[in-house]
Amino acid sequence: MNAMVKENKMVSPYFLFFLMNSTQTGVVVLSFQANIIGGAGHDAWIPVLALGLMMHVIFLMMLYILKHSSAGDILSFHKEIFGKVFGGMLNIILASYFSMVSLFTLHTYIDILQIWVFDGIASWEFSLLFSVLIFYIVAGGFRIVTAVAYWGVVIPSLMLLSLLYLLEFVEVSYLLPFFQFGAKDFFISAKEAAPLYLGFETVLVFFPFIKDREKSPKWGHLALLYSTFIYTMITIMTFMFFTQGKLEHLTWPTLTMIKIIQFPFLERFEFIFIFTWLLVVMPVICIYLWSAIRSIKLTIPNVKATYVLAGLLAVFHFVNSELIEIQYSHLMDQIFGYSGLIFLFCYIPLLFLISVVRKKLKK
């Protein structure tokens, strides 16, 4: 199974925890609360928790698909099931999806920097700087990307401890009464919260790079549990910090909460938080982009991976420099949300059913 990947390019099983968790923690965590409250109101933390637990089922489906593919990834599975031509087309569509999420994450982070910190610096300057950094990381190979993912989990986890500072300002009564909303309201909130958990689908591409794959699933499940815990805690903290009426009108609730934190030696703590968040978004951008390039490379072997990387970053730079109006941000947000939902909750279960039927037919 792992014969296609050289030993010196693989990483230990426990790195799956950092690879999966880092891709799930991106820019969405800074703004999701205002979206999910539109459905179940102050009960919206319940669908956030339920969705996180549901991801374990999706992950088990992914593992089953990978187990029944010749090379241990979705790219080979596509070709085996749908043939070389149609399977190759699906791989290119998958690469387009990965590229789009990577672009959306970079675009949104640049937007945050301009709104909160550097309103006088042009988008193309940020884009050029980040493109050089992304090129260096992705061109370095999967082990370099994994190292970035490691620090993208460790350092921001320490930063999230700063939320404990806010405990003296919370009002528990904002969460009451419980369970006053209907199933439809919970569904609306769940739909808005779903993008929080996107990211771990990249495991379908990079799984062959994990050593001793039979030992790695537990680390994947731990990553999902950790993400679920963080998102549920942030949601509950936010709902106790803001009234429902005020939260509906905030674009970046997490940053607005962080803004209240002050130290004698540091007045604008949110600046430090935003700069540190670069370590959070960089693994998302790089893992998705690396997955897109691998999908293209294995589908069209003659193409050089470095050229694909340079080409995609050139597209990223154009979009981040020219398409900076707010309607483009909303459009990308909509495409990102819906395509992620279709991929996680429709396409993966479909592939799972196909692999179950295929196994029974073989028997």
From TrEMBL:
Pfam families from the UniProt entry: Spore_permease
What would be one Gene Ontology cellular-component term for the protein?
A: membrane
UniProt keyword Transmembrane helix, yes or no: yes
- Highest taxon of the source? Bacteria
Q: Name one GO biological process term.
A: spore germination
Q: Quote the subcellular location field of this record.
A: Membrane
Membrane topology per the record?
Answer: Multi-pass membrane protein
Where are the membrane-spanning stretches?
A: 12-32, 44-66, 86-110, 116-137, 144-166, 186-210, 222-242, 271-293, 305-323, 335-357
Keyword annotations: Germination, Membrane, Transmembrane, Transmembrane helix, Transport
Q: Say which family it is in.
A: Belongs to the amino acid-polyamine-organocation (APC) superfamily. Spore germination protein (SGP) (TC 2.A.3.9) family.
Kindly provide the name given to this protein in its UniProt entry.
Spore germination protein (Amino acid permease)
